[in-house]
Amino acid sequence: xxxxxxxxxxxxxxxxxxxAFISFTSMTISLVAVETDVVRDGKPVVGYGFSSNGxxxxxGILRERFIPRIRAADPKSLIDETNDNLDxxxxxxxxxxxxxxxxxxxxxxxxxxxxxxxxxAVAKIAGLPLWRLLAERYNGGRHDKKVLVYPGGGYYYxxxxxxxxxxxxxxxxxxxxxxxxxxxxxxxxxxDRKRIEAVIDVAGGGENVAVDANGRFDLATAVSYARAxxxxxxxxxxxxxxxLDFRLNAALSEQYGGAIATGENLFSATxxxxxxxxxxxxxxxxxxxxxxxxxxxxxEYLRFLDLAKQMGWSRRRCIPHGGHQLALNIAAGLELGxxxxxxxxxxxxxxxxxxxxxxxxxxRPHATPGIGVELKSAMFAEMRRRLEIE
Length: 390
Description:
Oligomer: single chain
């Protein structure tokens, strides 16, 4: 058993939308395929992965550092003899060899894409959906039969703000979503309040609406927004300030009684631990949103969950950012609090399997071995084309 080849490619996920900080008109992601000599159903097992939205492709790191290190490793050192499979932790250690700690940045995103492909291959070799493999190995066999999901949307529509915003939220409801998320901070407070009220009206109450500032605010602005929105009873107030400004988050939590969510722009288990240590998050109401596909992968995310448990946090307070099949598998297999989704955004990589309907705000995990990349037909075809896999 060995890895026979690793391919990488860059793919566009351009979208004519913006949040409070960036435009997505030139956004790209990295695609990875890990090919093995293991045969299932008459074909070699291939694991597929990609990095999440919100950053850019990291082909140079993959080509120049990570992939050559795996090729140079003794194939036997990458095997999990206990499970007769590839060893994701050994592979992660191999491609991260000679990398200094800290300064994560794009390196973490490259690792996330590669690690996703490795876990996809591991689950396929085991003949199990990834969520079931995770449940059996790391959760005593327990899993969720359905996962709370919400669409990451509510972007700014210059020239047709309220009209287009309402239409977007109505479309999510028609697809089966109950909780919806919208952007704030890309306009003045008065305008954003009108936008929030319009979405609350469509969603049927503030408890069904989360707002996301994408790290835009300084403390004074974050507090001003908090005072303006606290009466709405929102589901949560997301990433109000810079993701590494833990003091801002802690100070805000002292003045805002509602739930706060953050963490999608933290890229290691240590960063996540520091957020829980110093960010003022409250385990009875707040949400932690580290994204495995941006933060060194599922391998590192498992380390973070162990650290969070040691600090008294329940997995139910974790909702991975990313809006893709990997996050849904992790949420189901490890019994997390839910999973983000990106229906109709960042195509074809956002959202879940083609035949996975959203019912009353929940999605059900698939039954196919692996992550389920093949169950999103347009995405799978695009990945194979760009990775030049016949």
